[in-house]
Amino acid sequence: MTSEAEPREKLRAAGFRVTRTRLIIGHRLWNGPDSRHVDVAALHTDIQASGEKVSLATIYNTLRDFERAGLIRRIAVASDRIWYDTDTGNHHHFHDMSENRLFDVPGASCEPHSLPEPPDGYRITKVDTLFHLEKVR
User: Which of these, 109, 121, 10, lies nearest to 66 by C-alpha position?
Assistant: First the structure.
């Protein structure tokens, strides 16, 4: 489990003012397993179930702010499905389409064989690989 101080320190180190709402969301993100994949609806449900009141719009805005600050990573699976990953390091994901869940590719290196040349004035900063899965019948 993450200590009470860790979300506070993450927020401060990223230059955020520590607010009640940011702490509520931060505790849900950074307590528990090392890497966590959350979607906004599930996060909102979890927060409401705990008795806290945070609007869906506030959660969206806070997660967007956390993403911009590099505290979490946004993973878009489809135009209507976005997860936020607490592991911001380089790694790859499986998407289980039947259960609509996202999980890390364990330990395996999935480096691409070749990368395209970026346009002049740009550099590649990261490569996201998402493997879509379907249950074998």
Answer: 10
23-41 pLDDT tens trace: 999 999 998 666 688 989 9
**Residues contacting residue 82 through CB under 8 Å, at least 6 positions apart:** 39, 40, 74, 75, 76
Question: Can you name the residues that pair with 85 across neighbouring β-strands?
Answer: 37, 73
Please tell me the predicted confidence (pLDDT) of residue 113: 62
pTM of the model: 0.79
- Structural contact between residues 73 and 88, judged by C-beta atoms closer than 8 angstroms: yes
Higher pLDDT, 124 or 25: 25
**Residue located via tokens 């090392």:** 34
What length is written for the chain? 137
CATH for the 5-133 domain, from 1.10.10.10, 1.20.1260.10, 3.40.190.170, 3.30.230.10: 1.10.10.10
